[in-house]
Amino acid sequence: MSDPTRAERASSFGSRAAAYAEHRPDYPREAIEWGLSGARRTPRHVLDLGAGTGKLTLGLAELGLAVTAVEPDPEMRAELGRVVPSATSLAGRAERIPLPDAAVDAVFVGQAFHWFDVPAAMTEIGRVLRPGGVLVPMWNYEDESVPWVAEYTALGRDGARRPAATDDLRQFEHPAFEMFESDRFRHVQRRTAESLLETIATYSLVIVSTPEKRQALLTRLREFLASNPATANGEFDLPLQTLALRARRR
Ligand SMILES: C[S@@+](CC[C@H](N)C(=O)[O-])C[C@H]1O[C@@H](n2cnc3c(N)ncnc32)[C@H](O)[C@@H]1O
């Protein structure tokens, strides 16, 4: 793949916003509830930061919480407004959150923490969180303990590293927060081979790639899915694991 900058990848999602909304997985309710239970008092008002098309925003709203979604990309925000009209949606970034001090009880971040300037974002998140509130970053991963999934994701990653999470937990330490805890939650997404390929096409590394490289990757994956017994015939369950972190505001 070419060598696009991190900033280019971080701001690439809007061009695939509709496909993102349709094909990316949502988050299991147990993971969201585990995150919320890290707060000292029951959260009522939560912020979804880097909210994208509202995958996690919807899960939070369905629990009856008042949700504010902050997202820099206007095309992603437009999808979010369609998917979760009850959420307050604001333009903004993790490093400069458009909320007053101590405004929310919890801050959730789905699949976006690795795009933030983490020390600056943690300071801002600490500012908008009430004392005893909780920060909950989470990531969905294909469940590579399943052999065909491991083979598929290795092919799809094409040598690239997957988003940093647990390996780099120590560097997320911040004086405003207690230490991070983590847990994992299994879930599945009902898929077809074509929808899986649509998902791959929403990955930042694939979006910023050249058309030739993108096509070669999709062809390789299509051939794999067509020859793999678990995915060759119609719909199947894609096994996923959600890795959730939580750290309480001091
Ligand atoms: C992979 S998407 C995740 C979207 C959504 N949270 C989800 O779980 O589906 C990453 C999102 O982070 C946003 N983003 C990138 N850099 C950001 C930053 N510095 N602050 C806030 N959001 C950012 C992107 O615009 C994109 O919508």
UniProtKB/TrEMBL annotation:
UniProtKB keywords: Methyltransferase, Transferase
Molecular functions (GO terms): rRNA (adenine-N6,N6-)-dimethyltransferase activity
SUPFAM superfamilies recorded: S-adenosyl-L-methionine-dependent methyltransferases
Pfam families, A to Z: Methyltransf_11
Methyltransferase as UniProt keyword: yes
Presence of keyword Flavoprotein: no
Domain Methyltransferase type per the UniProt entry, residue ranges: 47-136
Family recorded in the similarity comment: Belongs to the methyltransferase superfamily.
Protein known as: Methyltransferase domain-containing protein
